[in-house]
From TrEMBL:
Pathway: Cofactor biosynthesis; adenosylcobalamin biosynthesis
Family listed: Belongs to the CobB/CobQ family. CobQ subfamily.
Protein name: Cobyric acid synthase
Keywords, sorted A to Z: Cobalamin biosynthesis, Glutamine amidotransferase
Domain CobB/CobQ-like glutamine amidotransferase: 258-430
Lineage of producing organism: Bacteria, Bacillati, Actinomycetota, Actinomycetes, Mycobacteriales
HAMAP family membership: CobQ
Residues annotated as domain CobQ/CobB/MinD/ParA nucleotide binding: 6-235
InterPro entries: Class_I_gatase-like (IPR029062), CobQ/CobB/MinD/ParA_Nub-bd_dom (IPR002586), CobQ_GATase1 (IPR033949), CobQ_N (IPR047045), CobQ_synth (IPR004459), GATase_3 (IPR011698), P-loop_NTPase (IPR027417)
Purpose: Catalyzes amidations at positions B, D, E, and G on adenosylcobyrinic A,C-diamide. NH(2) groups are provided by glutamine, and one molecule of ATP is hydrogenolyzed for each amidation.
GO molecular function, one term: catalytic activity
GO biological process: cobalamin biosynthetic process
Enzyme active site: C337 (nucleophile), H424
One Pfam family, short name: GATase_3
Length: 497
């Protein structure tokens, strides 16, 4: 069976996803076949893969998709066998091996997931039979002791696969040594044996200043700090967590175009705006207050996993009126998937896909469309042309659109300065993004210089930079040695029985 490694964390957003992506690319550059894996994501940021034999679409977490790109592997459902998509604070929609599989209530989270664990373990075993190395990413903290009895994502996964584990901690948050020691100490003795070492992430400054702490952590735990990764502003990647939105780069100067992206409570596929963040003549802001729309040339209403609930939220904050007023003043609006549905007319949920059967509401009336949620989910990788450019994207939605008299636009509609599309990812295409920005610039009377950004090349450059950091500050040989050895390690005093 293939080598395996679990990249666990002391907290959420410690950098597990980017470290995993960097390890995948570094190992791939050594000529190994590598697969990323995450047993369970809780995220509304996902991607579509297509089965080459059946042509059917499947849905996986966006982070595992970009990790597969890093590994130079074809993304597939086994890389993220369980995806939980929060529809509210107490209810998640479940995706198993790429397909919808009901819902999970908060009260079921601890003990109602045995069937999900079985699917996750089987997927890991399958990947390990087909690849040289499987690099697994944990979820949240490795020391979620309230969930350990039914855990299949962190140390439960490590036990199943006898996976050597490294703990990643974010020093930028402060308290990294305490979080690493404390995480290890909270694990039971058997789980502690699988933890081989630590990785400190996002360090700024002279690494020699850390040496006393590194030495003390090793003396206290019997485990080394395998590497200290430097903080890099431009290392953001396709993420699973909306916490990462605030780390998206954007140009703070007097950009020719200002784009305000509405931060919906259940925002999904927020990577749709990543390519805009790289444009030198575009400034992107993330907003949740109507006053923040002042001065914006463009408003983007992104996707959401809870269209009706987020529409109600939009109204409760006065953002609906602010968006309508923005259009009346000559501004541009782009709605994507659920955001597009909000810009239209009636929205109906006869089967309770988002919650209550028969729920309905009316959108902002800026586009002549009606939305009805179907039981089955649309999962596609469409292609077409728009604005004189070739365009591609991906579709993940239950909502079916019935369009009226507006112009067609990428599976959606357009009326003047209001654009709506059911396709995610279209702005990652350089030709379509350039054409749309030029159209927007004309509409608002601005000048925009476009065509200089190669988004795919910049993504590849970031993946290679990540791999360079892994090579320099940890080392592929160190990782391979960590995956190959099985030492007997000290158990911290006070560990759980």
């Amino acid at each position: 069976m293939a080598h395996g490694l679990l990249v666990a964390g002391t907290t959420s957003d410690a950098g597990k996803s980017v470290v995993t992506a960097g390890i995948c690319r570094a190992l791939s550059r050594r000529g190994l076949t590598v697969a990323p894996y995450k047993a369970q994501n809780m995220s509304n940021n996902s991607m579509v893969t297509i089965d080459p034999e059946t042509g059917e679409g499947a849905e996986i977490g966006r982070a595992q998709w970009i990790q597969a790109v890093a590994a130079r592997a074809t993304p597939e459902p086994a890389m993220n066998p369980v995806l939980l998509k929060p529809g509210s604070d107490r209810r998640s929609h479940v995706v198993v091996l790429g397909q919808p599989a009901g819902t999970l209530e908060a009260g079921e989270f601890a003990g109602g997931r045995n069937h999900l664990a079985e699917a996750a373990f089987a997927a890991l075993d399958d990947l390990r039979n087909r690849f040289d190395v499987v690099v697994c990413e944990g979820a949240g903290s490795a020391a979620e002791i309230n969930l350990r009895a039914h855990d299949y994502v962190n140390m439960g996964l490590a036990q199943h696969g006898s996976l050597p584990t490294i703990l990643v901690g974010d020093i930028d948050r402060g308290g990294v040594f305490a979080s690493m020691y404390g995480t290890l100490a909270l694990l039971d003795a058997a789980d502690q044996q699988l933890v081989r070492g630590f990785v400190i992430n996002k360090f700024r400054g002279d690494v020699t200043l850390l040496k006393p702490g590194l030495d003390s952590l090793r003396a206290l735990t019997g485990r080394p700090v395998l590497g200290v990764l430097p903080w890099q502003r431009d290392l953001w990647l396709d993420s699973e967590d909306s916490l990462a939105l605030t780390s998206r780069p954007s140009h703070d100067g007097d950009g020719a175009l200002t784009i305000a992206v509405v931060m919906l409570p259940r925002v999904s596929n927020f990577t749709d705006v990543d390519a805009l963040c790289l444009e030198p003549d575009v400034r992107v802001r993330f907003v949740d207050d109507p006053r923040a729309l002042a001065g914006a040339d463009v408003v983007i209403v992104p996707g959401t996993r809870a269209t009706l609930a987020d529409l109600a939220w939009l109204r409760s904050r006065g953002l609906d009126a602010a968006i309508v007023g923005h259009v009346r003043r000559g501004g541009v609006v782009l709605g994507i998937c659920g955001g597009f549905q909000m810009l239209g007319g009636e929205i109906v949920d006869p089967h309770g896909v988002e919650g209550t059967p028969g729920a309905r509401d009316h959108g902002l009336g800026l586009l002549d469309v009606r939305t009805e949620f179907g039981r089955s989910k649309v999962l596609r990788l469409p292609a077409a042309s728009a604005l004189g450019a070739e365009a591609t994207g991906y579709q993940i939605h239950h909502g079916r659109i019935c369009a009226g008299g507006d112009d067609e636009f990428l599976g959606g509609a357009r009326r003047g300065n209001v654009f709506g599309t059911m396709w995610h990812g279209t702005l990652e295409g350089d030709a379509l993004r350039t054409a749309w920005l030029r159209e927007v610039a004309v509409a608002v009377g601005r000048e925009v210089h476009t065509g200089a950004v190669d988004f795919a090349a910049q993504r590849e450059a970031r993946l290679d930079l990540l791999a360079d950091m892994i090579d320099e500050h940890i080392g592929v040989d160190v990782l391979l040695s960590t995956m190959g050895d099985h030492p007997t390690l000290p158990t911290l005093t006070g560990a759980l029985a």
